[in-house]
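Appendix B, Record 12. Input sequence as logged:
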Amino acid sequence: MEKPLKRIEALKPFSRDHHHTLLLCWKVRTGLKKGISSGRIKAYTDWFYKEHLIRHFEIEEKYLYPVLGSEHELIRQGIEEHKLIKKLFTDETNIDESLKLIPEELEKHIRFEERIIFNEIQKAASDNQLQKFQQIHSDEKFVDNLTDEFWLYNK
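Logged structural output:
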């Protein structure tokens, strides 16, 4: 596997989003291991999806992915992974199974973007594109939903 390049400033906000999403994966796994009800975990994942993940995917697909082009195999894979992850978050019929798969699929996708797609984008992006990345994804502070910190408690 190709070693990641030092992340350029214009892509760092996306990597920070990924950090918070990896924390979501940890929280879901921890909640499941502790036997927390799927309803409590699902309430948190629904909040995270609506407040953070939808926008993150939209920005990637609208601004980052076009640097390589919609027909690029890496971009096609990234978009397919986005579709699968969206389906897991919005699944209302197999919630328990989706909650098990969300951390697996998200972590795999983030590693793919960080190690492969972002390296290719930062090699190919023009200065104008890099400036646009910084404009559209300002370094907003992540504010977590701490109304039910299920990952900290045993039940």
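The first helix runs from residue 12 to 33.
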